[in-house]
Design brief:
There is one protein chain. The chain is mainly α. The protein has 5 helices and no strands. Helix 1 runs parallel beside helix 5, helix 2 runs antiparallel to helix 3 and helix 2 runs parallel beside helix 4. This is Major facilitator superfamily MFS-1. It is a multi-pass membrane protein. One of its GO terms (molecular function) is transmembrane transporter activity.
């Protein structure tokens, strides 16, 4: 879901631009707000999982991402949409490294490469499918 959200919004941008009265330049911020906060908080998300526990941080990131996703669906103007997309990016930045640390600590030996490969394949497919 985290990777999918980067590209899936591109399909809806023309409708968002029309319905939320965005200029083309402002519509780009719907994508940029997510990507910038995701990238900016990614290292912090991983460190937070180390300090406060993987499960707790995973659930917090999932909750933040979910609430922001609902907020995006309920946004009535461009400012709200950009703001909740930024919050989604923060939630994704918390969620993504916590997911990887859970996989790395859960799977051992020959099962670890398979688990990481599956996670990578699903993440890659999510990014590819989002544009359809």
């Amino acid at each position: 879901m985290v990777v999918l959200d980067v590209s899936i919004v591109n399909v809806a941008l023309p409708s968002m631009q029309r319905d939320l009265h965005f200029s083309l330049a402002n519509a780009q911020w719907v994508v940029n707000a997510y990507v910038l906060t995701f990238a900016g908080f990614l290292l912090l998300g991983g460190r937070t999982a180390d300090l406060f526990g993987r499960r707790r941080v995973y659930l917090a990131g999932l909750a933040l991402f979910t609430v922001a996703s609902i907020g995006a669906g309920l946004a009535t103007n461009g400012t709200q949409m950009v703001a909740v997309r930024a919050v989604q990016g923060i939630g994704g930045a918390i969620l993504s490294p916590a997911t990887l640390t859970i996989i790395v600590t859960t799977f051992r030996g020959p099962r670890l490469p398979k688990a990481l490969g599956t996670w990578s394949a699903v993440a890659g497919a999510g990014g590819a499918v989002g544009g359809l």
